[in-house]
Specification:
Blueprint: H1 14-32, E1 35-39, H2 42-52, E2 60-62, H3 69-76, E3 80-82, E4 90-94, E5 112-115, E6 120-121, E7 134-138, H4 139-143, E8 149-153, H5 156-169, H6 172-184, E9 186-187, E10 190-191, H7 193-202, H8 211-215, H9 220-239, E11 258-259, E12 262-265, H10 269-277, E13 284-288, E14 298-305, H11 312-322
Parallel strand pairs: 2-3, 2-4, 4-5, 5-7
Antiparallel strand pairs: 1-8, 6-11, 7-8, 9-10, 12-14, 13-14
Helix pairs in contact: 2-3, 2-5, 6-7
Amino acid sequence: MEQWPEQNLSNNTISDLDDVQLEVESFFSELYGYEAMFFPSARSALFHLSVYYKMSRDQEIFIPRWSSHCLYNAFGLIGTPSVHNKTPKLILVNHKWGYLHSAQGATQNTPIIEDSVDSLILNRKGLFKANGDFEIISLAKLTGLPGGCIVFMKSKESKRELTAVVDKKNNPELNEIFWYYKKKYILNGQVNQHEFQVANQLEPLISRVTPDQLLNFKGIEKNYLEMLKVISKRYYQVLCYKSQLPLESQVSFQNDNRVPTIIPVHVTEDMLLELSYKGINLEKRTFDFNLNAFSPNFKPTYFLPIHIGVSDRDFEILISTLF
């Protein structure tokens, strides 16, 4: 694990930093043709969106089965996360790994947030495929930067109202405590459990980034477009082997407007052994091959990662071994 990046802030004014946030939001808005808003993290975005929808403890928020702790953490601070209720007050549709999921089977006219944190969206048509009001992507997961999330929305009015929520919930003292622990929980490549637990629990409540975090996103246009190029290239490289993938894994290739960052693949014991000799260990995870949170078909599967967290060397080894 890496240290939190240290930045030299002496030559940057508050106005300069505001310009960085405006630059980031303008870039994503122009790239995808929707209003965009920057948040410190995806958890922060989800918590503030649940406030926007005026959720309360007696109201259920639907999330997919076996969701990660971050969703319970973000929504559980204000509402009640549920994996079974088909008549919730708010639905989170998680387009896991970049695969479009459906909310078919839920009650009509329930507000939807589309969770595309690890999806690579290629163009405007790739957004709001489940007809949600908001859609989020994680800059941390896609680019490897320390934190950062973009919330897309369909109107300036929605952005104005969400901005008002952030302004109202902003607590500078709490922000300062969080960022203090956030910077300390990884030191010398080791996780300090106490600092980690404190920062982990506070993260959804944080409304504002610090100047040093924001500076990590200065000039993000180049990094993001390069990431789009690298992952798209890898995706089309895998596409050449489509006929060798199990039929269920071919859900990967159903949409031309977004690219998955992880592809389910069939892996033999011999392949796993060969990869381990080369220093690569594949994980097995549960994936919904029905792509519908209200009528799922979960099965354990190995997966091929094509995101930038995998080096070019390791990706080439994976391709040559699996295909």
